[in-house]
Amino acid sequence: MRKIIGKKILMTRIFDEKGFEQPVTLVKPEKSADQFKEGEVVNVTGISKGKGFSGTVKRHHFHLGPKTHGSDNYRRPGSIGATYPERVIKGRRMAGRLGGKKTTLKNLKIIKIDQKNQEMLLGGAIPGPRKAQVLIWSKHES
């Protein structure tokens, strides 16, 4: 298994030879960026952005309630349990802290490696805010 630790710098876009836009993330590895090659597929693990305390609509994509006719159940979760077993079942989706958890994105393509500046361009978005540490890894040996 090959792995390196890097710092997420920013997210931007590039245009390919056909003129199509492609989202990319610029990552600056701490050292051994030469372990990977352009065009290779890697996985990226990091801590996702923390979004604080969030309601059920934002956190679990619950539907909104009726907006009119005096309803006060617009962004609330609704019923949280049945008559039996007369308690809230473990694992019930409710409001709470969102984000800030370890996340792995798989099969991201290395678009470009700049050995001179020690930078990598990875296709797509990776977890975490700017300046966050990420682990770039691959199970396959080159």
Named at the architecture level, the CATH assignment of the largest domain is: Beta Barrel
In CATH terms, what is the fold-level topology of the largest domain?
Answer: Elongation Factor Tu (Ef-tu), domain 3
* Measured distance between first and last alpha carbons: 10 Å
What is the name of the CATH superfamily of the largest domain? Translation factors
Helix content: under 10%
**Mean pLDDT metric:** 94
The backbone outline, from C-alpha atoms, is elongated
CATH class category name of the largest domain: Mainly Beta
The strand line-up of the biggest sheet is 1-2-7-6-3-8
Report the biggest beta sheet as strand number plus sense, adding barrel if it closes. Answer: 6 strands, antiparallel, barrel
Task: Provide the succession of SSEs.
Answer: EEEEHEEEE
Q: By helix and strand content, what is the structural category? A: mainly beta
Radius of gyration: 21 Å
Q: Report strand %.
A: 35-45%
Q: Which regions contain 5 or more consecutive residues with pLDDT less than 50?
A: none
User: Got a strand count?
Assistant: 8
Number of helices: 1
How would you describe the overall organization of this protein?
- The protein contains 1 helix and 8 strands, in the order E-E-E-E-H-E-E-E-E.
- The protein has 142 residues and is mainly beta.
- The chain has 2 domains: 89 residues, Translation factors (Elongation Factor Tu (Ef-tu), domain 3), CATH 2.40.30; 44 residues, no CATH class.
- A 6-stranded antiparallel beta barrel has the order 1-2-7-6-3-8. It has a two-stranded antiparallel ribbon with strand order 4-5.
- It is elongated and about 65 Å long.
- 13% of the residues are buried.
